[in-house]
Amino acid sequence: MEQVERRTVVMKRQTAKKGIALHRLTKIAMLSAVAGVLMLFEAPLWFAPSFYKLDLSELAVMIGALSMGPLAGAAIELIKILLNFVLNGTITGGVGELGNFIVGCAFVVPAAWIYGKWHNAKGMLLGMAAGTAVLVALGSLVNYFILLPVYATVFGQPLEFFVQMDNALNPAIVDLKTLILYAVAPFNLLKGLLVSALTFVIYRKLGRQLEQ
Length: 212
Description:
This protein has helices at residues 2-39, 57-68, 70-88, 95-117, 121-155, 159-167, 176-211, and strands spanning 43-44, 53-54. It is mostly helical and 212 residues long.
């Protein structure tokens, strides 16, 4: 009798775990789809080159990361990039998409990790502030060493071409370093702050349901 009860308990636990895993995968798929759709709606900013366009896809990624953890956030980021790759293709042989994945993870992973340690409003704000800082720093490095050189190669233009494009908008931009300082870094800072603010408002209303 005791063995039957133990087997029943074990089976119930296994069923519960499978249900949780399925629910988790469903949320990852749903948020990835939302992020993919949001990525289609993008807008240029007045201080950055025209190929830098702001979208709010990281909003869905951040919500997923906060509710399910850093690994889930990275998975949503990856699926979002792959969806965009399928829908829009690529002109950089996947290098630009790889850079976007790295920069996106730099934003959401630190935020989710810190929120997991301090599971309250202050922890969320601290996490997203840290994520924004990492986004700006790593985003600047990735653009300086990877993305801008790749774009220059793809478009068949020297790096000075992009500097001249932005110099017309901001005379302080005279070389690649000032392009990063006055265009790329502010772009990522604005994106981080905007997504963080929207996430904080939405998550305070829906966070409990998302974490269940």
